[in-house]
Structure formats: structure tokens, C-alpha cells
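User: I'm putting together notes for a lab meeting next week and I want to include a structural view of one of the chains we've been expressing. I don't have a solved structure, so I'd like a prediction I can at least talk through. The sequence is below, exactly as it appears in our construct file.
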Amino acid sequence: MTTPPEPDVLATLRALRQSRRFLPTPVAREDLDRILEVARWTGSAKNTQPWHLVVVTDSALNSGLANLGAFTGFLDGVAASIVVAVEGEGRSVAYDDGRLAERVMLAAAGLGIGSGTAWFSNPAARQQVRELLGLPDHLEPWSAIGLGYTDTSEPQATPQLSGRKPLEEMTSWNRYGRPAPTQPT
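Assistant: Thanks for the context. Below is the predicted structure for the 185-residue chain, given as C-alpha cells.
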């Protein structure tokens, strides 16, 4: 039995990587709107849609955001960012934030646009983001997705450099510690 070719969508999912170095080329408004439309249709716990998205295309604001977290520095070079501000707290809101970020990244990849996630990891940083963007107190700005055209002349992290665990090391079948059943030939 031969394995069918991998659908394009699976190849896109496997190839999605964090971009941290970008070209100065702006992202077209039409493409940002298309990405936002995907974000709008992202699922959330109980369909609460607990987010407000702030699209930042002003380079000075993105530079300001770049200084507000341990893993936000690359925002200084993005063409645009989308700050995800969520209402509420707890596990479902964190899950929804991550789910939305991944969908935005996949939408961007589908348009040939690179992306990377940034995390505003402490209350002081989130308060500074809130003040910088004029967010109301009931919205918590946990993350941002940087967008732009990846600068391929600069080295980027790749799975070959950072590695991936073998599937056998990270999966079990039916019970913990059991390998995949052998397939009949």
C-alpha cells in the first residue's frame, strides 16, 4: 500500500515556524483584513470570543511594544502586529488566546506572510501595553502576533537546528508507554 501525497494544508501546518526577522516591506491592508477575518471565525470556549484585537501598523508603537516583555524584542522589526487583549481569566481564556494566535499565524502563512508570537509575561508589562494602546482595564493584553515578510537572508530557527523529538518518544498508543501497533504489510 502506497502512502498518498501529503495535502498542501498538512505541508503548510508542518512548515509553520516562528519568524523573528522581517523585511521592511509593509503588509497590504487587504491581507491584514483577510487575516482578521480568519481571526474572527476562530473558535473559543463556549463561543465567548473573549478578545479584542488591536492592529498596530505604526512602527513607533511596535518599537514600544518590543520593550515590554522578555520575548517581544522582534516586534521592533515587524510590518504590523496584532495585540490580543482578552476579557476574563483562567485556563479557557489562555487556551483561546493561543488558539487565536495559531490561526492568525496559519492565515498569514497561507498568504506568504511570516509571523511570530510575543508574550507580555508579567502584570507590569501588560499594564504598559494597556497604557500604550489605550486599552480599558477589563482587557488583558497577554500576547501579540508580529507580521511581516520574513527576511530569509538572516538565519532563523529551524526544526533542523532546534530539533524535534521523534514521534515514538512523544506518543503512546492506548496506554502510556505502549508503542504504535505494527501495520500489516
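A couple of points you could mention at the meeting. The two ends are 8 Å apart (CA to CA). The CA atoms of residues 31 and 111 lie 7 Å apart.

User: Perfect, that's what I needed.
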